[in-house]
Amino acid sequence: MSLSWRKRILVFSALAVLGSACGVDDDEVVRLKEGESFADAPYCGSFGCEDVYQFCAEVFLEFGRSPPICVSDNICERLECANPNRQCAVFDGFPGQVKCID
Q1: CA geometry: angle at 87 spanning 85 and 89, to 5°?
Q2: What is the Cα gyration radius of the chain?
């Protein structure tokens, strides 16, 4: 392995991390309804959430993505879209994503 090959691996790894940490598009923003909070939401562990009825997801908030937290499948009932012409949706993955779509 040459040194230039190692540099390329480091650069591509850094770009992948930076690309995944991008901000949130204004149309994807969700916000908590009045009286709701994520204060009780535990952070995800390496293997997901301890509670089998919860899953690990990033929530697309106005200031950016939340850290991966444990949420229930009815999380959209606690949220509203910043753009009223859109609806909240939950996307599978690890972590999943909670954001607004058309």
Answers
A1: 155
A2: 16
DSSP-based three-state secondary structure for 92: coil
pLDDT per residue, tens digit, the chain (102 aa), is: 444 545 544 444 444 444 445 578 989 999 999 999 988 899 999 989 999 999 999 999 999 999 999 999 899 999 999 999 999 999 999 999 999 999
pTM of the model: 0.73
Which among 22, 98, 26 has a CA at the least distance from the CA of 60?
98
- Burial zone of 86 (CB within 10 Å; 0-12 exposed, 13-18 middle, 19+ buried): middle
For 15, the enclosing helix (H) or strand (E) is: helix 3-20
**Token pair belonging to 60:** 């697309």
Report the distance separating Cα 29 and Cα 19, nearest Å.
Answer: 18
Torsion of CA 49, 54, 60, 64, to 10 degrees: -30
